[in-house]
Design goal:
Layout: H1 4-38, H2 48-79, H3 86-90
Helix pairs in contact: 1-2
Length: about 100
């Protein structure tokens, strides 16, 4: 019998993990682009405070993503749903396949 409360929890946590994975990818993609641009611009000083702020944002959203995966996987067997993995979350970004 399906535990509908756990199913709702699982669904919400899975969505939270997906959203965090998207944000993580976006932040890293944008930071990578900025650093790539700067490698040829010798006259432009690197704004390390910006780089550090962006890395802190990446760390924050990465932590959120991992926590949501862990909690969703704890709820999964209680509602008959499959566990999710970090690989599954990142499947849409493999080979530079930006999904959104």
């Amino acid at each position: 019998m399906t535990n509908y409360a756990k199913l709702g929890e699982y669904t919400a946590l899975k969505k939270q993990a997906e959203d965090a994975a998207t944000k993580r990818y976006s932040l890293l993609h944008n930071l990578s682009g900025e650093l790539y641009r700067l490698r040829e611009q010798y006259e432009t000083p690197i704004d390390f405070s910006y780089v550090n702020r962006e890395l802190e944002r990446v760390a924050e959203v990465d932590k959120e993503m991992r926590a949501a995966v862990k909690q969703a996987n704890e709820a999964a067997p209680l509602c008959g749903q499959p566990e999710i993995s970090l690989h599954w979350l990142m499947r849409n970004y493999e080979d530079s396949g930006w999904r959104r």
